[in-house]
Amino acid sequence: MIIPSAFCIDTHHVNAIVLGADPTNFSDRKQRKELTKAFGIGDGDPRYFRDILKNLESVGLVLNDLYITNCVKEYLKEQTSQNNEWHSKASKSLPDLIKELDAFDKQRKIPVFLTAQKIYEFLVFERAKSAKEIYSKPELIPINREANKLGRRLIPMFRHYGYQLQNWSEYRDRIKEILA
């Protein structure tokens, strides 16, 4: 079994980190599709990252700007949204994730985009807000370093089609301000 590695063109020029939950998927005729990189980038199947990349491009980021990885590196028995053990797996993976990101960003200045509500709920110390509440109140981002387990600025940018930034212009503009 392949454990997908992070995708990054150049760790010396990273402007944003994109964090997925885990590589688990059953999109190959209800069988697991194995990926070589996070979100299958470079595997010839853009469906896992296409909408995320559209959002990132809408705030001025391109693939060359990104470090893309997952909270949990290994494949799990169930997809993230249905996996009751995901938080436990993520807790075990957290120290390694922190080391991975600190390896190229020791001062923790690079913002982290969270691609799923489950990741956000896991990382924040306080009660997580709903996706709609976050997107409706752009002043809530970024989530401060002191308010999460990664100790980094977090920006929810969920891959769900209902949260495409083309439909949330104030939220998109707030992200642009943060990145400026």
Describe the structure.
The protein has 180 residues and is an alpha/beta fold. It is 28% helix and 10% strand. The chain contains five helices and five strands; from the N terminus they run E-E-H-E-H-E-H-H-E-H. The protein is globular, with a radius of gyration of 15 Å.
Number of helices: 5
Low-confidence stretches: none
- What overall geometry do the principal axes of the alpha carbons give? globular
Which secondary-structure class do the elements indicate? alpha/beta
Strand content: 5-15%
Order of helices and strands: EEHEHEHHEH
* Sheet with the most strands, sense and barrel status: 5 strands, mixed
Helix content: 25-40%
Total strands: the figure is 5
Q: How far is the first residue's CA from the last residue's CA?
A: 40 Å
Mean pLDDT: 89
Radius of gyration over all CA atoms, rounded: 15 Å
Strand order of the largest sheet: 1-3-2-4-5
